[in-house]
Amino acid sequence: TWWDDETLDGCPPHAHGEALALHQRLQAEGLVPNLVTQTAVVRAYDKSDQPTQAMECYRDMQSQSMQLDVVVYNALISACARGRKPQCAFRVYHDMLQRALRPDRFTFNALVGMCSSIGWVANTTWLLADMTASKISPDTTTYDALCVASGQAAQYNKVLHYLAQAELNALWHLLWM
């Protein structure tokens, strides 16, 4: 065939428009992309800052009764977060949970980072609680977003706490990894 799944996902950052054009060509020829291809398309929409189109792709996948995985949901959450559409990101997160898919560190980091960037400090706190309840350890990215959010809210004791936790986390990884 003239295309394969890696064609879309392997596009360099500046070529996302080409990936999206390829997706449109697939649709025009009546071909139904599989999950890997659809995930690559969602990622291209994410990188192109087009969350609305990423969500259209999501609706297409749902209408085709595709069994979506955590990778697709993470790409959708990232697209919504990058596009500064927090309600969209949380809707996708809740859909993910309803389908009994387990969020991973990427899921939480995308949501915590988004909440941090828009000043939703309370959400960063409960997301951290969900993250640790899911037995997922925060990493440097998580702690960075938590420090930014807490600093914006003038919660300097929390900033110090998160910095100390980040330092302990880094030390633990150095010693045991």
Can you describe this structure?
This protein is an all-alpha fold and 177 residues long. The protein has 10 helices and no strands. The protein has helices at residues 5-9, 16-28, 35-47, 51-63, 70-82, 86-98, 105-118, 121-133, 140-152, 156-176. Helix 2 packs across helix 3 (35-47). The longest helix has 21 residues, at 156-176. The N and C termini lie far apart (44 Å). PPR repeats lie at residues 69-103. This is Pentacotripeptide-repeat region of PRORP domain-containing protein. InterPro entries: PPR_rpt, TPR-like_helical_dom_sf. Keywords: Repeat.
Summarize the structure in short:
α7 packs antiparallel against α8 and α8 runs antiparallel to α9.
Helix content, binned percent: over 70%
The average pLDDT score comes to 84
CATH topology of the largest domain: Serine Threonine Protein Phosphatase 5, Tetratricopeptide repeat
User: Uncertain spans, ≥5 residues at pLDDT below 50?
Assistant: 1-10
Structural class: mainly alpha
Defining traits:
repeat; 10 helices; 177 residues; Serine Threonine Protein Phosphatase 5, Tetratricopeptide repeat; mainly alpha; disordered N terminus; 2 domains
List the helices and strands and how they pair.
Elements: H1 5-9, H2 16-28, H3 35-47, H4 51-63, H5 70-82, H6 86-98, H7 105-118, H8 121-133, H9 140-152, H10 156-176
